[in-house]
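Researcher: We are triaging several targets before committing to wet-lab work. For this one, the compound of interest is 2-acetamido-2-deoxy-beta-D-glucopyranose. I'm pasting the protein sequence and the ligand SMILES. What I need is the predicted three-dimensional arrangement of the protein with the ligand bound, expressed as structure tokens, so it can go straight into our comparison scripts without reformatting.
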Amino acid sequence: MTFCCRDMNRWSRLCGLVLLLSHALMHSANAGFCTPTPGSCWPSRSTFSAWLATLSSTTRVYTPDTTPEFFLSEATSMNLLKSNFPGLIVVPGTEADLRSAMYFASKNRIRVVARCSGHDFNGRSNGRGVMLIKTELLNWTLYDDKTQAISFGSGAMHADIYSALVPYNRVYIGGQSKTVCPAGCLAGGCHGLMSRQYGLGIDSILEIRFALFNGTVITLNRTRNADLFHAYLGAGQNSFGVALSFKAQTYPAPPAILMFDALFDATADNAPGNLLSNFFLNATWFNDMPRELAGNINYEFGSVKVKFVYTGTDYDGTFQKLQPLLESPFTRHVTDPEVFPNMYEVALNLYPPVTDIWARKFITSGFLPQDQEVLDTISSIIVVLFGAQWFDPHEDRDRVAGMEPYLSGLYSLAPTSYSNEFTSWGTYNNVSDWKTRFFSNYDSLLAVKKKYDPCNLMTAKFAVGSDQPTAICSCAPKG
Ligand SMILES: Cc1cc2nc3c(=O)[nH]c(=O)nc-3n(C[C@H](O)[C@H](O)[C@H](O)COP(=O)(O)OP(=O)(O)OC[C@H]3O[C@@H](n4cnc5c(N)ncnc54)[C@H](O)[C@@H]3O)c2cc1C
Ligand SMILES: *[C@@H]1O[C@H](CO)[C@@H](O)[C@H](O)[C@H]1NC(C)=O
Ligand SMILES: *[C@@H]1O[C@H](CO)[C@@H](O)[C@H](O)[C@H]1NC(C)=O
Ligand SMILES: *[C@@H]1O[C@H](CO)[C@@H](O)[C@H](O)[C@H]1NC(C)=O
Ligand SMILES: *[C@@H]1O[C@H](CO)[C@@H](O)[C@H](O)[C@H]1NC(C)=O
Ligand SMILES: *[C@@H]1O[C@H](CO)[C@@H](O)[C@H](O)[C@H]1NC(C)=O
């Protein structure tokens, strides 16, 4: 088995067969991941103690028996409906300790799950009986004046990066929520307020320092380990290893950023059509809006609140283009624009403090399709899903059931869907087609997976290779 690990670049059908055979021959207690359950191969207390003694004092480790209250609060996921109970929690204070944790886990066949902010809608930054590695202390940033690139640790949140760039008058292209982390966001693509100008977050990434299953670090960029570089940026959630840090190009900061709110009555009469079909979901109208205009749409009780964010300088031209909307029969109130000096201030002011309430509301981006029939479908979905307040778990269930009739219309938008913003629930949104739903070339991603994680130790729901046998070897030397 170690043959495959050492020679992992020469992963072959033969090697796969050998692994499968040895997997089949192994005692059942040795197959798959070790978990802290009776009869499983979870390491002994003394094995843990010996490893813990090697860690630096900045690293925190929580276990359910020694620190139960901390353990519970640290384990909780943002989506409470999809929380889980890990086997132990490691909060590395140094990269060396993160690598050591991965080495220990791979040697002992413990499943590792990385978590930055815990925003994952589907609880993929948690797992039953896993070693949960929280990267929050690895939140450093470093701007290089010469190359105008910013580097940051995988524990950094978007707010950390936006704020680090303020003194240099530059912007990073990432998500709009201040507490979301690039690490997980980039693993799916990452869209933000300036994506209509500069593309997705992944388009600006220059390099990733990456820890393989056993903690060994490799550099990924467009020429070195390019296969894994591209695989992480779009299909990376806990799949191939753990990203340690990123380097990204930056762009000149807008001289000022304007924000204003507009309140609309979506039920007002304006036959033919409605507020959404006439404007926000009207590709002709939307495409004519300046690239520097973005915003959030929040639909509740038939009224629509839009927060417009404008990063350009043509104020008169933009205001003129918005006139037909702002003077439509739907418009109730438009606030005076507030001026913000930089993206960091925008991120701080974009959301009310209780972001988890907002997380359940509709956030639109500039990526709208051209097909009017499909746009009309979306507007029905918005009405079904966001027509009322939405707080209780049982409502969650009812509401998603109500969405079922619209899924095929939504799915006809594009061949694939954004893997960072989906949710599945029982039979609702049964993503049995996940290989084609989230990935455009699954077979090549699977080849990358087998090359860099031959034992299949890194896994997550709907991740590349997640339907294959896991922990088929330990891939670390004994001792
Ligand atoms: C309130 C809210 C606002 C959002 N806003 C946006 C937005 O503006 N734009 C956008 O594109 N998306 C947005 N999203 C979706 C967001 O991109 C996903 O929730 C994403 O998974 C968050 O990544 P994270 O690292 O912050 O979260 P986590 O839950 O910590 O991680 C998400 C996934 O990435 C994995 N992961 C985390 N760190 C690493 C690492 N270092 N190496 C390997 N895998 C890792 C985790 O295991 C998990 O599978 C938003 C979500 C919410 C809830
Ligand atoms: C981790 O695995 C890689 C690939 O098989 C190997 O090159 C490296 O030496 C291993 N690292 C450790 C610490 O065992
Ligand atoms: C990083 O995290 C530490 C500990 O939570 C915090 O004190 C510090 O302010 C953070 N640094 C940045 C740049 O966010
Ligand atoms: C990729 O990284 C290697 C090693 O650091 C470096 O030599 C090479 O120039 C990098 N390529 C790109 C495109 O950045
Ligand atoms: C879409 O917008 C265009 C341009 O503003 C407008 O002429 C057209 O009537 C709109 N379509 C609908 C269905 O309202
Ligand atoms: C999802 O769909 C597949 C294929 O139709 C089916 O086999 C499976 O049982 C479904 N799962 C759930 C939870 O309904």
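Researcher: Any quick observations?
Model: Residues 372-386 form the longest helix (15 residues).
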